[in-house]
Each structure stands twice: as structure tokens, then as C-alpha cells.
Amino acid sequence: MIELLSLMQIGEALVGRGYEVAHIDLIIGEKNGVVGQAFANALSQLSAGHTPLLAVLRPNLITKPPAIIVPKVTVKSLEQAELVFGPAQAAVAKAIADSVEEGIIPKDMAEDLVVIVSVFIHPKAKDKNKIYYYNYSATKLAIKRAMGGFPDVDTVLWEKDRAFHPHIGRKLTKLWDPPYLQIAFDLTSLDEVLNVLRQIPESDHIIYEIGTPLAKRYGAEVVLKMREIKPHSFYIIDFKTLDVGKLEARMAVDATANGVVISGLAPLKTIAEGIKEAQKVGIYAIVDMLGVEDPIKRLEKIKEMDVFPDVVELHRAIDEEEGKPPWHLAKHVKEKFDVLVAVAGGIREENVQEVISAGADILIVGRAITRARDVEGAVRRFLNALKKPDTDQFRIMTDF
Length: 400
Prior knowledge:
Blueprint: H1 2-5, E1 9-15, E2 22-30, H2 34-44, E3 53-54, E4 56-58, E5 61-62, E6 67-71, H3 78-101, E7 113-119, H4 128-148, H5 153-159, E8 180-185, H6 190-199, E9 206-210, H7 212-218, H8 222-227, E10 234-241, H9 245-254, E11 259-263, H10 268-280, E12 284-288, H11 295-303, E13 311-315, H12 330-336, E14 340-344, H13 352-357, E15 362-365, H14 367-370, H15 375-386
Parallel strand pairs: 6-7, 8-9, 8-15, 9-10, 10-11, 11-12, 12-13, 13-14, 14-15
Antiparallel strand pairs: 1-2, 2-7, 3-6, 4-5
Helix pairs in contact: 3-4, 9-10
């Protein structure tokens, strides 16, 4: 830790609620390092409305290690300044002193370190007691996290798809926990689509597919209409792209879709360009094997283009619901390629476990849900058959 402190340690914490909520960002490092230089710059280069100040336990008594407080919100009145120079400053100073006393900051390093603390005080905050105690708690927690290197990279990677941000909610961008139920909207009436959508229960194991007929009638922007009802969900546009793969991938991302479907029958160059563009902008590239005679050979050809989709869809068309089920190749695909496998065609509540056992990660269901008399009941039965509990979506501001 001592060697790391010659550079910097970084900590953050959010504590409290309402206008008095405290959000602390801080860095700790040695006086003769980059943090010391930043400390000197902050104290000597003043900015209107963001005047830095030293943290004092009382007038004429700074903390050790010395700490400089920088207001995040522009101070525009004496009332705001009083809250920064009063309860916020006192809270930060006391938290630093207590951290030294409790060994969070080693006492023998207190003369060698400096701390830069960025403090948030909402313009409408009024309660000085809340401001003091929230900022004390947040500063102390941020120091503890900084000195302990929290969070480690593994924690970040574990939490990134589970996190619920208090100001934005939980936006699904990755399919990290299969199996999933993908509900395909092949309806051509937007009113009907939105009516069905309202009846579907919330679940982070549901994917919404804008089917080809729906996309053809309303365009990619239909995603934005659906997001008015389900803003946090994962949406895929089934363009079944056969040409201009790059353009259609860009159309999907411009409409806030999370994935785009490219036909496996398209020219290899079209498939490659579509995959590259989708992955470049951070959405999923799905290649649909509908009509492809030998999906394995086709995937091998795609791989030779130095690209590969995120999802391979094994698809039996609505017009061809006979013969082998589409999932019979799922395990073979997964044995040869590191890819998620979606299956469409012939999936019912009673064969969900058969499909999953065959290797499917995504089960695509259309009319069995969208035309059901009891849409919510049908969805819940499919979700229960998946036997996959939802992530706790109310885990906010925790370390775990």
C-alpha cells in the first residue's frame, strides 16, 4: 500500500437521502507525488463558485493528513457557502481524524499524505445535522475504500450487470445469465404490441424482439415506443439483414436496440460488416440460420472472416413447423464455438427443459405469448419453466 500511495488511492461513497444526501469522491497520496501536486494546484488556483478550503476540526486546527475540500456544486449564495464551510467541512475533518485514530489511515503516514475531497451539497439542502452526519459517514467510508483498494476488479465485473443506479435504474446491455426468454413481436399493429407489452411482468430474464414484420412496418424507431413502457429492457431488432450490414447495425443502435439480427443467408461480407459494426458500437450481433442448409459450415465460413457473432439463432420458420426441432444442433454449435445459442420454433411451456438441456441459452417464443388470452400468465409459466430467479433489483449502494 505504501508504494501505491506514492501515486494515489481513490475512494467514493454515497450516504443519505433527500436533498442532504452526501456524495464524496476523494484521492489520497503522498505530498511529494502527483496527489501533492494536485493538492497545491487546487489550493493556489481558485475557481469562482468552487473555492477550495482546508478541512479544519476547529478554526486554526487542520487535519493530519491535511485535506482540501472542493465543492462539486457551484456555490452561488452565502447560505450555500455556510453549509460547505460549516457542517460539510467539519464532517470531512472529523472523518479524517477518526480514520487516523482507528488505523484506517496509518498514523505514521499522516505527515506524509494529503487528501483531496470533492463534496456534493445540493442547492436545496437545509438540514445541517443531516449534512454533517451524511458527509461524515460518506467521507469515512470513502477513505476506508480508498485505503483498502475497494472495489477490486472481480467485484466490478460481478456487479456491472447487476447494479441498479438510483438515477437511471438498471439498464440491460449484456446477456450474462442464461437461459433467457425472448418474446418475439411479429404483430403488425403498434397498438396491439404496446398493449401486450404492458401485460408482461418485469423480469431481467426477458428479451424483447422486434420481429421482421413489425420492423418493416414501423422501422427501427419502434424500439423507442416500446422503451416508453419497458425502459430498462433488452431489445433486439430482427432485420434479417441481407445487404448493407453495417448500415442496418447502425440503424439498430441509433434506435437504442441492444442487438441486431443478420441473416445467415447474406453474403459473407455483409455478415462480417454487420457483426463488426454491431460489436464496435457495443450491441449484440445475432446471425439467424433460418434457411441455411448447414449452419455449422456457415459458421466456419464466418469465422474465417475474422469475426463471429455474439448469438447464433437456430430457427425453424412459422411456415415450416415440421421435421427436426431447431434445437437439435444447439450442443454441436456450442461444442465448436464460444457463442450463445438461441432457438426459435416449436417451443412450448412443457418442453422448455428439453430445449435448455439441448444447449439453448435463449428460447424464442412468439404467438404462444403475444396471442395468449392471459399474456401475463403465459409469460410467468415460461419463466417458471426456465427455473431462473431474477437478480435482486433493489441492491443499491452496497459493497456486496
